[in-house]
Amino acid sequence: MLDSIEIQKILPHRYPFLLVDRVLELEPLKRIVGIKQVTANEYFFAGHFPGAPVMPGVLQIEALAQVGAILALREIEDRETRIPFFTGIDNARFRRPVVPGDTLRLEVTVIRVGNRMNKMHGVASVDGHVTAEADILSIIVERP
Questions:
Q1: Bridge partners of 90?
Q2: Mean pLDDT per 10-residue segment, the chain (144 residues)
Q3: Active site (catalytic) residues
Q4: Could you give the 3-state DSSP secondary structure of residue 52?
């Protein structure tokens, strides 16, 4: 539904911190599904962990937050003047490792979306197995 070029028109994130490659499904103000193709040359694998690469759980949560930000920001007309910030992460759980070659599925469901404050539930998975999940709280503010 959205490729990386279209995603960059919505999100302010850029390489190496853009963690969403594609959006597969989108129900405005309800639900979104994106993917991150996890490759062996990701910058974080150099130190996490040499010889046994594992995607950090906090980056899985960040990827979920970015997918949620796409859902929220695409509804804002002047989104190029806005930036999303975390305000909280609740009920985070890390279930299993994500390794090079995995396709990380990022599903985010709206709990509450306002014109500034948002609360969403995200679930990251690989091949139908949950790798991480959390409730993500954020605020969308004017860019500094």
A1: 135
A2: 96 95 97 98 96 98 97 90 94 98 98 88 98 97 89
A3: 48
A4: coil
What are the distances in angstroms from CA 24 to CA 21, 74, 92, 105, 135? 10, 15, 24, 9, 21
Rounded-to-integer distance, Cα 121 and Cα 52, Å: 29
Distance between CA atoms of 15 and 93, rounded to whole angstroms? Answer: 26
Give bridge partners of residue 37 from the DSSP assignment. 103
Residue environment code for 116-131, b if the CB has 16+ CB neighbours within 10 A, otherwise e: eebbbbbbbbbeeeeb
Backbone region of residue 131 per phi and psi (left: phi > 0; alpha: psi in -120 to 50; beta: other values): alpha
Structural domains present in the chain? 4-142 (3.10.129.10)
Question: Model-level pTM greater than 0.85?
Answer: yes
